[in-house]
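Task: sequence design from structure.
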């Protein structure tokens, strides 16, 4: 019997035993509904949205939304069950999915931005379907259907997506392999997050130690902002520097493309959270209104004085201006969302001041005005902020040490990013290999070898007891019972059909076994096919015991008695039966 071959389909190459079907053929897809006024902060029933799906496909409920019990009871769709797959259907995260291993509450619904995907047949493992949905096999198909400014996909478009379907037993084997790979992958990602957080904490401790304790001091004095070395000076920011706002510009003056006779234009989007300038996203400006106060030069400090957010994570952040190597001019323009800091004293190293302003940036949040858009009250902030001033030589030594720490942190973060990127690539490769049958090739080979001896042995022994060839329907039920009651895993995907449990794979296997099995088409009131084994193959004792026990139980029974047993014990396989069930 040949090992599994692969065949090319429109969505990739898969083992020939696999089927490819549209999602609508195998799963029910339903959408949620929005209660009037949307989800509430409090209520009776949890309502899930795209924001509640974590990157690893789980539900996060840090900020749950709720709908009323009355509205939930009125829903005809959108009620979530365990093992459901939920899929974001629109917005920036279209295609993100979660698998609900367990419900976060007894009653849960989804809002209008999510689909629920639920298998319609027992021959589809929900977890396998989830892995297909998060893989490129599925994601590449839905991306071709995205519509609108930020994407989105309709139910009818989702229904047309093609899904590869291995036999159920192989689905379970693939899920087992992928669950292990997924656990390892996200454990590694968690470790990387923990290491990054620890590194950030250590960096803050080092900065605090150097910026407030200095180098080699033993005598300290208490000030309004903490304890500092005795020989350090402490002054207010508005005493040591002047703050100037940048250019108020129009959209027609700004461009993403280089303007030959224009200037680099630094805006709020140019400043990183925590300090520093971003290394990309440069924009340009040309204006007849430019004055000297609108320009910055290499080494100037800029302060973010506006924040379009509610957490203040950027407001008060500082950056030292460093031009990219390709920029040939000695000055750039900065916007009114930023302020330029001009030193008034000579004994302040600009790099030391930058590090200190970055260290105390969270204090700036107390000086904001506005709600949706925060504005830094520069006068009050600069008047209240106290700045330590070590001797210039010590400032330079502290800056040198902090720059070395920054270099080490950058290199270490680059290493962590490379590690994460490699883990992402490896995980995607494992997904692809598993979901195209590559990781289960050996397992499939073993199943094929098992089938190649079990079927001839079973047919031979059954024919011997019956004194005649075996009917196709009898063989189908014998193999069904071997899987169900004797734990002989042949990876057959039995489905309800007109004579109970049925798998079309058996016909393919009999064709592969034609050198050992003879199938004779006949006109018979009982069945259309008679099957005879040409030889008695050698099998191990466990298989021989299982087959012989099965034949001893059912070999002398006629087809009606065999079907009666199967129908009574496994009624879930009779839902499509064409037989008179009352007889059984």
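Answer:
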């Amino acid at each position: 019997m040949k090992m599994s071959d692969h065949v090319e389909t429109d969505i990739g190459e898969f083992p020939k035993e696999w089927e490819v079907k549209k999602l609508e053929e195998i799963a029910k897809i339903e959408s949620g509904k929005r209660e009037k006024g949307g989800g509430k902060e409090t209520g009776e029933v949890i309502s899930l949205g795209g924001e509640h799906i974590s990157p690893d496909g789980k539900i996060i409920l840090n900020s749950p939304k709720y709908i009323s019990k009355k509205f939930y009871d009125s829903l005809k769709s959108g009620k979530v069950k365990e093992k459901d797959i939920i899929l974001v259907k629109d917005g920036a995260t279209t295609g993100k999915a979660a698998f609900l291993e367990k419900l976060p509450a007894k009653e849960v619904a989804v809002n209008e931005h999510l689909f629920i995907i639920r298998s319609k047949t027992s021959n589809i493992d929900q977890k396998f379907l989830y892995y297909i949905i998060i893989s490129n096999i599925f994601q590449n198909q839905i991306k071709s259907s995205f519509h609108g400014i930020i994407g989105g996909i309709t139910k009818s478009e989702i229904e047309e997506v093609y899904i590869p379907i291995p036999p159920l037993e192989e689905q379970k084997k693939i899920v087992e392999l992928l669950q292990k790979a997924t656990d390892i992958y996200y454990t590694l990602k968690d470790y990387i997050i923990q290491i990054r957080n620890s590194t950030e904490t250590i960096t803050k401790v080092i900065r605090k130690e150097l910026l407030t304790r200095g180098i080699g001091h033993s005598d300290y004095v208490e000030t309004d902002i903490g304890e500092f070395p005795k020989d350090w000076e402490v002054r207010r920011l508005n005493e040591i520097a002047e703050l100037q706002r940048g250019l108020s510009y129009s959209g027609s003056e700004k461009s993403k493309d280089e303007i030959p006779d224009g200037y680099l234009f630094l805006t709020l989007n140019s400043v990183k959270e925590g300090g520093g300038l971003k290394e990309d996203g440069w924009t340009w400006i040309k204006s007849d209104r430019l004055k000297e106060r609108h320009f910055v030069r290499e080494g100037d400090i800029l302060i973010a004085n506006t924040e379009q957010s509610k957490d203040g994570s950027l407001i008060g952040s500082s950056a030292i201006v460093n031009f990219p190597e390709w920029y040939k001019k000695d000055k750039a323009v900065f916007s009114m969302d930023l302020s330029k800091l001009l030193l008034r004293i000579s004994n302040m190293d600009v790099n030391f001041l930058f590090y200190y302003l970055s260290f105390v940036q969270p204090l700036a949040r107390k000086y904001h005005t506005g709600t949706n858009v925060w504005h830094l009250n520069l006068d009050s902030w600069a008047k209240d902020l106290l700045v330590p001033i070590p001797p210039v030589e010590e400032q330079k030594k502290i800056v040198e040490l902090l720059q070395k720490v920054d270099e080490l942190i950058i290199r270490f973060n680059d290493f962590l990013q490379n590690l994460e990127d490699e883990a992402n690539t490896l995980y995607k490769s494992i997904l692809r290999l598993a979901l195209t049958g590559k990781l289960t090739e050996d397992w499939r080979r073993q199943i094929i070898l098992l089938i190649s001896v079990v079927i001839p042995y079973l047919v031979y022994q059954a024919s011997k007891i019956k004194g005649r060839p075996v009917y196709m329907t009898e063989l189908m039920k014998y193999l069904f019972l071997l899987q169900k009651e004797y734990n002989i895993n042949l990876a057959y995907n039995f489905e309800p059909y007109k004579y109970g449990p049925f798998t079309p794979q058996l016909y393919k296997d009999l064709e592969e076994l034609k050198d050992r099995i003879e199938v004779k088409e006949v006109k018979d009131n009982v069945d259309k096919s008679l099957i005879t084994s040409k030889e008695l193959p050698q099998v191990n004792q466990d298989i021989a015991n299982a087959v012989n026990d099965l034949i001893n139980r059912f070999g002398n029974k006629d087809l009606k008695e065999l079907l009666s047993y199967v129908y009574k014990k496994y009624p879930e396989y009779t839902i499509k039966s064409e037989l008179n069930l009352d007889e059984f």
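The domain at 233-389 is CATH 3.90.220.20 (Adenine-n6-DNA-methyltransferase TaqI; Chain A, domain 2).
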